[in-house]
Amino acid sequence: MARPLAPRIETLLWTAQRASAAALGLCVAVHLVTIVLAVRGGLSAAEILARTRGGITWLLFYGLFVVAVAIHAPIGLRSILRETTAWRGRSLDLACGLFALALVVFGWRAVGGLFR
Amino acid sequence: MPADGGTLEVRVWRGGAEGRYVPYAVPRRQSQTVLDAVSYIQRHLDASLSYRFACRVGMCGSCAMTVNGKPRWTCRTHVAKVARGGALTVGPLRNLPVIKDLACDMAPFFDKWAKAEGRFRPPTEPARDFVPVRPASPARQAADAGIECIGCAVCYAACDVVAANPDYLGPAALNRAWTLVNDVRDAGQRERLAAVAGDAGCHACHSQQGCREYCPKHLNPTAAIAGLKRVTARAALKGEI
Ligand code: SF4
Ligand code: SF4
Ligand code: FES
User: Fold this and answer.
1) Looking at residue A116, what is its pLDDT?
2) Please, which residues bridge with residue B23 across strands?
3) Ligand 1 pocket, B164 CB below 6 A?
4) B16: domain range?
5) Domain with B31 in it: what CATH number?
6) Minimal CA–CA distance to B74: which of B46, B44, B104, B102?
7) Number of domains in chain B
8) pLDDT confidence of residue B126
9) What is the pTM of this model?
10) Eight-class DSSP state of B78
11) Is A84 on the interface with B (CB under 8 A)?
12) Which secondary structure element, helix H or strand E, spans residue A98, and what is its range?
């Protein structure tokens, strides 16, 4: 089996997961409030898009939301897999890294769709 | 002590990793502890029963067993408190290899104390003067909160993360490490923080507090582990571990 990651890296991963959790708490709250307001206001999909297109604030907000998800989810997934399966080591680290990359790519693509 | 009337059915684990529960009829007595019941079986019913105890007053930490599914120090656990319908089921502690009957191999548990750098590291230079430790200082208070551990492994048996990840150092070893992190005289802090960080260390803890729930000394290993998470995070950000 490959050598485990250094205690420093493991600790930094844990810290990043905690920090991203804090960011996510805020992002999810804003996101939910936005949805509720949009639905209450009876906005159609086209009307929502009209408001988000070209909006730098929305771009930044959802761009950061995606980054927080891409940090938080793969680190958590890695811990869960290590605890519940026998999968460990470099192959797991790599798989979780790829998962993070996929979240960034697909997440930003979706955000781009709101902006353009 | 006079018999209190009645009989207690005590089902006791017999065997090693493989085995079965064997029922024994034990006379019910006043203020009877679970250890009293187990000792009665060994002295009067089956001398081949293996179990451990020493102090019988909650100091040595050797008598822990699983009683009706929960880890307990048996010398201080009254039958009246835990018996269900006049019956007790007594087994060895969880998460440790069973040697025989109620006796577990405690080596993995204490090996982890060593792995967690759970011993005082004096400075290489002999101390020239006393180090003042104010009893009211936050560090000393934090150390005091965890220092009364009797090494009974009740918390270790209660911890689901130990069950899922056999490498996990566990609540008692990490609690011990935390008392030393708060010892201003200790010279091995960097090694200790590196030893307790990561997947087998404090970062694996789910903070569900099973350890705290069952610790017979009412210690709070969860809080100690949270302290380790904080201090290791700071050290990692500064590049010290
Ligand atoms: S709080 Fe942590 S150490 Fe305590 S039982 Fe839960 S996972 Fe184990
Ligand atoms: S922390 Fe409590 S339960 Fe765990 S070994 Fe020490 S005294 Fe026993
Ligand atoms: S026999 Fe010593 S703590 Fe129970």
Assistant:
1) 84
2) B11
3) no
4) 3-104
5) 3.10.20.30
6) B102
7) 2
8) 85
9) 0.92
10) B
11) yes
12) helix A89-115
Same-domain check for residues B11 and B81: yes
Is A113 an interface residue toward B (CB < 8 Å)? no
* Residues near B101 by beta carbon (within 8 Å), at least 6 away in sequence: B12, B13, B14, B15, B19, B49, B50, B51, B92
B203: closest chain A residue by CA: A14
Quick one: tokens of B29?
């007595």
Give the mean pLDDT of B85-105. 97
* Interface confidence (ipTM) of the complex: 0.83
pLDDT digits (tens, 9 = 90+) for B161-220: 999 999 999 999 999 999 999 999 999 999 999 999 988 999 999 999 999 999 999 999
Residue at a domain's end among B104, B136, B154: B104
Which of B204, B207, B208, B75 shows the shortest CA–CA distance to B152? B75
A11 contacts B203? CB cut-off 8 A: yes
Whole-angstrom distance, CA of residue A92 vs CA of residue A83: 12
Average of pLDDT values for B116-143? 93
For residue B207, which ligand has an atom nearest its CA?
A: 1
Work out the minimum CA distance from B205 to partner chain A, whole angstroms.
Answer: 11
- Rounded to whole angstroms, the Cα distance separating B5 from B86 reads 12
| Strand order across the beta sheet in which B3-15 lies | B19-29, B3-15, B87-91, B64-67, B70-73
Mean pLDDT of A12-34: 96
